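ok so i was messing around last nite and threw this chain in just to see what happens. nothing serious, just curious
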Amino acid sequence: MVFKLVESAQARWRAVNGAHLVPLVRAGARFERGQLIERPEAVAA
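result:
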C-alpha cells in the first residue's frame, strides 16, 4: 500500500533545480524569497 501511495505521489513531485544550493541549506544558510541572506559580521563588544 505504501508503495502505491509513493508511486502516485511521485507523479506530482518536481525535480530540485537548485541542487548546488543543497549544501548551503544543510550548513544552515537562510534564504528569503529565493535569495541567500548573508549573516552580519559579529560585532565585538
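not much to say yet. The chain is about 30% helix and 15% strand.
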